[in-house]
Amino acid sequence: MSIINSITVIKSFNREKVEAEKQLILQKQLTDNQMYTRQISFVFDGLKTFTEQIGIVFIIILTAYFVLVGDMSIGMIMFHILLFNNVSAPIRSLHRIYDEVNDAMIYAESFFQILQADDEIEDSGQQKPAHLRGKFELKQVDFYYPNGHHALKNINMVIQPNKITALVGLSGAGKSTLISLLDKFYLPQSGQILMDGIDLNQMDTQYLRDHIGLVLQKNHIFQGTIQDNICYGKMDATEEEIIRAAKKASIHEQILKLPKGYQSDALQLSGGQQQRIAIARMFLKNPPIIFLDEPTASLDAIATEQIKHSLDEIKQGRTVIIISHSLSQIIDADYTYVMQDGAIVEHGEHYQLYQQQGVYKDIFDAMAKSLNIDKIAKTFDNEGEEETHS
Ligand code: ADP
Which of 8, 28, 69, 247 is the most buried (most CB within 10 A)? Predict the structure, then answer.
């Protein structure tokens, strides 16, 4: 399937032949596997039928012997064979059921593994404090992914409540991993994560996630109407509440312009609109803590500018952690942690960090350079001059 989604890239690199060969090898492996499974199942079926037939032959020989000896009548033989059929039919269907259950178990194995993996975290804590302020403290946290990758190394940090904290770092530094740990999608192998002084292990996972809003890079829009998508975080929301949330996310007017309004298909919306639907969903859920993981990364400049207002609105009065490659969003943060290769290398406020002449300065300068700020400034200057001349 993924190969079909990537067809444009494959064609643009002229890699059709290579990809076709890879597919051929894959298909051949699949066919070989299937052949092997078939072979085994034919041998097994053959053995089963053979044993059954041997049983019948044995009974016929036995009954023939008894008849010859004079212990049995012809009627008794018929009776025996009928009896044998009556017994062997249920045994055969028991076999069939066993085979089917086995097949089902094979297909369901991975599914059960996923369910069980989730359980390990679900059962770990029961604490539900009456009020969450949203102060996170991480103490010597180390985290390895199941494949052994050491993604977080000795992380010590404090996320202050009602403040905006930015995580800055190159791709692969471990920023998203850190957010996944704070949302309890994973547990750290060592160290401690405290939320308002309570160990995250002790906290009820559902309760924690009820208080956290997650806005990701790719808009998480589901098949369904705009209304369904907005009230995903609060299924019993009234129409008024939904409209209020949409207004706060600056999307209400645009929804009204659609032919079917709130009943339109949400997947038909543009990227920027979908992201605002996701923000409206957050307003409705109204969590005290918000994680924004590159919320504008997949949007164009106009859409980014348009959703800036909704993002600023959702940040008000909450604990916010933002991962972003946008200069304006990083400067807006109250405090910044800089990550590199799974560790925190610098932290502080913007100006303070910039003066340290370290990783933050390098990243910040690179971002500014990629914007070509000199030319942008010149463009604005020229425009100003032209206006004064005219
Ligand atoms: P960032 O958000 O800073 O770009 P991530 O937290 O996504 O970085 O990734 C940190 C490191 O962990 C990367 O080297 C990445 O390849 C690795 N990683 C991310 N997710 C997984 C995973 N599910 N399994 C194994 N390694 C992963």
Answer: 247
> What was the pLDDT predicted at 390?
53
Pocket test for ligand 1, best of 141, 143, 144, 149 (most atoms within 8 A of CB): 149
Q: Which atom of ligand 1 is nearest to the CA of 169?
A: 3
pLDDT band for position 387 (cuts 50, 70, 90) = low
Q: 72-83 pLDDT, tens per residue?
A: 787 877 787 788
Helix H or strand E encompassing 230: helix 226-230
> In angstroms, what is the span from residue 177 Cα to ligand 1's centroid?
6
Residue-wise pLDDT tens digits, 36-81: 989 998 998 899 889 888 887 887 888 888 888 888 787 877 787 7
Task: Specify the residue with its C-alpha closest to ligand 1, atom 12.
Answer: 151
Whether residue 216 has its Cβ less than 6 Å from ligand 1: no
Q: Could you tell me if the CB of 306 is within 6 A of ligand 1? A: no
- Distance, in Å, from the CA atom of 12 to the CA atom of 249, rounded to the nearest integer, reads 38
Helix (H) / strand (E) element for 192: namely: strand 190-195
pTM for the model stands at 0.70
**With a 6 A CB cut-off, is 147 part of the ligand 1 pocket?**
yes
Higher pLDDT, 40 or 4: 40
Nearest Cα to Cα of residue 163 among 335, 291, 353, 328: 335
Mutate to test the pocket of ligand 1, among 145, 181, 330, 363 (most ligand atoms within 8 A of CB): 145
Q: How far is CA 364 from CA 93, 350, 381, in A?
A: 71, 10, 23
pLDDT beyond 90 at 208: no
Pairing type for strands 150-159 and 136-144 reads antiparallel
